[in-house]
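Dear support,

Our group has been running a series of protein-ligand predictions, and this particular one with uridine-5'-diphosphate is the one our PI (initials K.S.) wants archived with full inputs and outputs. We had some confusion internally about which version of the output was final, so please treat the block below as the authoritative record. The input we submitted was:
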Amino acid sequence: MTQIAANYPDLSIVIPVYNEAKNLPLLLERLLAVVHRMQVTYELVFVNDGSIDNSLQVIKQLAAVNPAVSYVSLSRNFGHQVAVSAGLDVANGKAVVIMDADLQDPPEVVSELYAKMQEGFEVVYGRRVYRKGESYLKKVTAKFFYRLLSRITHVNIPLDTGDFRIMDAKVVNVLRQMPERNKFLRGQVAWVGFRQTWLNYTREERFDGASGYTYRKMLRFAFDGITSFSDFPLKMASMLGFIVSGIAFLLMIYTLLARLVFKDYVEGWASIILSVLFLGGVQLICIGIAGEYLARVFNNVQGRPLYVVDEQKTANQGSNNT
Ligand code: UDP
Ligand code: MG
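Confirmed final output from the archive:
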């Protein structure tokens, strides 16, 4: 018997939504078919991340006719990772799935994730073996990024995975206690530990609309991933400092010899310009790297709330404004 439990459903599905009005009805339809087949109690948690289309109205309509649908609506666009975090904060399920609203993560895979979890895992993440309909540049940069990240971090962040995954409530609890503001959830989940495994799946094409991830947002996200899980860039900055100082020292000896011994010192404009430019560049890069970390420290010590909720409805209850 399929039923909806108010407190601890077997499964919560957290779905961040940014301008996905046209995708939501089909997403819900396919998800409901899946959870009904799975014979579990469930709740669907939509997080409206400051959409500027009528996604919120659509979510409200869906919630009005389906008591298992709950939502959190944020006061503005806080970004995908924060939207997911807001959803995890209110999800009550014994297992929690994170998936996109644009049908790129096929709803049917949810039952496979759930089944795999029952074999005794706390986390099962989806590994994208094939990505349909994404630009060559996106695929190549993503591939490069995950490989770079895995080389320079101590945490074993799985290659080619997004946030599409299922997690035990234990893991979700730990995530809620991680206060960092520059969220890189797929890394945080890896950090948490427990028994984790993966399932291969084909990432579908977005059903309608356009990706909310601009290259700018992706770059920011990549920096967050690197700075949250690696201090390699900082170490690289000091390594560069040593290397450049070494070269400078050798040049110094050469300069002194040229001046005092070989008496060959009139020319040299090119070498001065080159070394000034080179040293200036290296210094700026290193200050920039230190700045990236400092900015994140600053962000975190400010201690602002991670997101602001405008309105919300919990599953099986009336709507209430906060
Ligand atoms: N999303 C969000 N806030 C944003 C950008 C995206 O909540 O600022 C949601 C979006 O609605 C979708 C998921 O995050 O459900 C993944 O985003 P998108 O499809 O735009 O990224 P892509 O799949 O292109 O990486
Ligand atoms: Mg997408």
